[in-house]
């Protein structure tokens, strides 16, 4: 029986579409620039709390000096494209009313966490959360999942995990979680309601 529902943050609770957001500024070069930043090992280490934003900036500028102005622009404005996915807010409210425990499990830097908690505090009014920057581990590494289970004393077999990346859902399933991949938001909300109704 599922007692806990666990949500990723990026592209589950808030949008994370940098290419779409920055395209009006950089046009055809947008995808390349966003890969430089958000697809970099530096960004992964930033999420893990191992590198600071300043260190990420320095490393990226050393690597891509010809794109200095564009990278600085992205690093200055990137938080602006994270907007709340409101149907998920409503879903969480309904699940709380029905007695489910709600947790967050996200690869996220401390800067992002503090920004989102300030801008959209309702998403953090939950029973707990595990964030990569706190434990220096990113999904799909099993450490972050196991830490969530240990800290909050919950069972994987009683937990449904929702993430937008298949590899993260697969890692959760390997540890005994129920898993679901975030797709179209309305379809996903309906799937979750149906899945829990079958319990």
TrEMBL record:
It holds the Pfam family Hydrolase. SUPFAM superfamilies: HAD-like. NCBIfam families: HAD-SF-IA-v3. This is Haloacid dehalogenase. It comes from Amedibacterium intestinale.
């Amino acid at each position: 029986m599922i007692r806990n529902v666990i949500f990723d943050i990026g592209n589950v609770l808030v949008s994370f579409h940098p290419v779409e957001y920055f395209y009006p500024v950089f046009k055809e070069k947008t995808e390349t620039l966003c890969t430089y930043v958000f697809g970099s090992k530096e960004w992964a280490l930033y999420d893990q709390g191992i590198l600071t934003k300043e260190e990420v900036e320095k490393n990226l500028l050393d690597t891509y000096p010809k794109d200095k102005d564009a990278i600085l622009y992205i690093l200055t404005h990137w938080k602006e494209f994270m907007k709340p996915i409101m149907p998920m807010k409503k879903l969480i409210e309904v699940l709380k009313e029905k007695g489910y425990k709600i947790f967050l499990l996200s690869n996220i830097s401390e800067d992002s966490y503090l920004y989102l908690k300030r801008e959209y505090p309702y998403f953090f009014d939950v029973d707990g959360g595990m964030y990569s920057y706190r434990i220096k581990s990113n999904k799909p590494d099993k450490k972050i999942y196991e830490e969530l289970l240990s800290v909050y004393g919950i069972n994987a077999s009683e937990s449904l995990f929702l993430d937008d990346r298949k590899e993260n859902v697969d890692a959760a399933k390997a540890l005994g979680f129920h898993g679901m991949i975030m797709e179209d938001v309305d379809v996903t909300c309906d799937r979750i309601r149906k899945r829990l109704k079958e319990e």
